[in-house]
UniProtKB/TrEMBL annotation:
Residues 21-345 form the Enoyl reductase (ER) domain. Transmembrane segments: none annotated. It comes from Chaetoceros tenuissimus. One of its GO terms (molecular function) is NADPH binding. Keywords: NADP, Oxidoreductase. It comes from the Eukaryota. This is NAD(P)-binding protein. One of its GO terms (cellular component) is cytosol. The keyword Repeat does not apply.
Length: 347
């Protein structure tokens, strides 16, 4: 390790699963051991870590991890240490973004095959925002639907004023689909930037910052059927989960696909497979790792996203930047459903 790299660093460590307010669930430490370089990896000094809903599931234990661990799975900064890189693609001083574990920290050990160089003209914040939410939106609108939707056909995307689906709605339009979006009323401004053909605006659940999907089933189903001449939509992109799955199952067109990619309101309850018979429908529960499964796929997706951002056809908003030590506040923010764009932690 180079002598300028300290042996200890600041990090947010999950020592116990629990709520964001629990002192050991997101513990700010200033003497956590700096990871040591090993073959096939580089050491990145982070400027930012990206925040994602999945971080809250790791913290809570919904997606179990071995304790203790440094939270986070998205980062960006400068390469400060590297062993031989067989591809000769990277060197010390490069500004990179990446998705791998242990990013709420000053330094992260990153597998070389996960690194993406930040292109000229793009800020590190914007490039970083593309790594999880951007890539997720890209695979959702490009691959996860298994070509069961074609250009000019309707899809339904929930929460288009929020994180991932603000991107998904724009990308679905870029792919030539017609988009019905939903949003809570507080996020209408962001949702309108997503360029949906039709926008269904919902009141917030009582005392909350997210839409009252629980009491909006009839409103959404009726509106979707009106818009699609009673045919339903060929594809549904649903990151809300528990409170929207019934709506999704009722809005599908014949041989349509319900892509349930997230659980912002809680995990989807089990339902009988026979429910799918009515429309010969498809359901999938995908994850990013399976759609950026090798370097070629990762590069193809990220290069298309960067090109859209650079030519102005994809608009990315940074909602809030929190200090690393305020990770608990950032988790409370994301869990309250307030998110209107990318959230970052600053080192
Ligand atoms: N499978 C994958 O590959 C993958 C990748 C990325 C994310 N995800 C998952 O997808 C989900 C959404 O992620 P995201 O990045 O879009 O998150 P986000 O930016 O925080 O958006 C979540 C949105 O869901 C809506 N919502 C409805 N009920 C909610 C509730 N009870 N609590 C909080 N929000 C609620 C809110 O929008 P409204 O105001 O419109 O109601 C909220 O802004 C998460 O479960 C995440 O883990 C999965």
């Amino acid at each position: 390790m180079s002598s300028s790299i300290p042996s200890q660093m600041k990090a947010i460590v999950v020592r116990e699963n629990g709520p964001a307010t629990s002192p050991h669930a997101l513990h700010y430490e200033t003497d956590y051991p700096t990871p040591k370089l090993k073959p096939g990896f580089v050491l990145v000094q982070n400027k930012f870590s990206g925040l994602n809903f999945i971080d809250t599931y790791h913290r809570q234990g919904l997606y179990p991890r071995t304790l203790p661990f440094v939270c986070g799975q998205e980062g960006g900064g400068t390469i400060v240490d590297i062993e031989t890189d067989a591809s000769n693609e990277f060197s010390i001083g490069d500004t990179v973004v990446y998705s791998c574990f242990e990013t709420y920290a000053e330094y992260t050990l990153v597998p070389i095959e996960k690194l993406i160089k930040v292109p000229n003209g793009l800020s590190i914040e914007t490039a970083l925002a593309c790594m999880v939410q951007g890539l997720t939106a890209h695979y959702l609108v490009s691959s996860a639907h298994a070509n069961l939707i074609q250009k000019q056909e309707w899809c339904l995307i929930y929460s288009v004023g929020s994180g991932t689906c603000q991107w998904a709605a724009q990308m679905a339009k870029l792919r030539g689909c017609k988009v019905i979006g939903t949003t809570s009323s507080q996020k209408v401004q962001q949702a309108q930037l997503s360029n949906c053909d039709e926008l269904i605006v919902l009141q917030e659940a009582e005392g909350q910052s997210y839409a009252d999907y629980e009491h909006s089933h009839d409103k959404i189903i009726t509106r979707v059927m009106q818009i699609t001449n009673d045919q339903g939509v060929k594809c549904i992109i649903d990151g809300v989960g528990k409170s929207t799955s019934e709506i999704s199952l009722n809005c599908l067109a014949r041989r349509g696909i319900f892509i349930s990619f997230g659980n912002a309101s809680g995990p989807v309850e089990p339902f009988p497979l026979l429910r799918l018979t009515k429309k010969s429908a498809f359901v999938t529960r995908p994850k990013l790792l399976d759609y950026a499964s090798n370097r070629k796929e990762l590069l193809e997706r990220i290069e298309e996203i960067f090109a859209w951002v650079q030519d102005g056809s994809l608009k990315i908003g940074i909602d809030q930047v929190f200090d690393l030590k305020d990770a608990s506040l950032a988790h409370q923010y994301i869990e309250s459903g307030k998110t209107k764009g990318k959230l970052l932690l600053k080192m």
